[in-house]
Design a protein that fits this description.
Strand order of the largest sheet: 1-2
Number of domains: 1
GO molecular function, one term: zinc ion binding
Helix content: 25-40%
Order of helices and strands: HEEHEEEE
Structural class: alpha+beta
CATH topology: Herpes Virus-1
Number of strands: 6
Distance between the termini: 52 Å
Region (Disordered): 76-98
Largest sheet: 2 strands, antiparallel
Biased composition (Polar residues): 88-98
Pfam family, one: zf-C3HC4_4
Radius of gyration: 15 Å
Organism: Hucho hucho
Length: 98
């Protein structure tokens, strides 16, 4: 039983790391990766295009967790993949243009 739980735990960790290396918009490997304040990672071009599409509320949202932001979130440069989902503490702010 313990062995099965360890394998499940290890598999979940691998899946989380695999998910962090893929963009939730294009579902491909990250190209010019950025993260937003909720910690999810995207290709810079994908999240920029996603936010350029008008929405009735006028808010910006995370395409992965659906968290809403009143203003456009600052794009963060991920420094390394983290073990935890929402690893924004492993990111640094970078300049971006709209």
């Amino acid at each position: 039983m313990f062995n099965a739980l360890c394998q499940l735990c290890t598999g979940n960790k691998v899946n989380r790391l695999k998910d962090q290396s893929r963009c939730a918009v294009c579902e491909q490997g990250l190209s010019d990766p950025v993260s937003i304040t909720c910690g999810h990672r995207f290709c810079r071009q994908c999240i920029t295009r996603y936010w350029e599409q008008p929405v009735p509320s006028g808010h910006y949202g995370c395409p992965q967790c659906r968290k809403r932001f009143r203003t456009r979130p600052v794009l963060l440069q991920p420094t390394e993949p983290s073990d935890e989902a929402g690893g924004s503490e492993n990111s640094k702010t970078i300049a971006h243009s709209h």
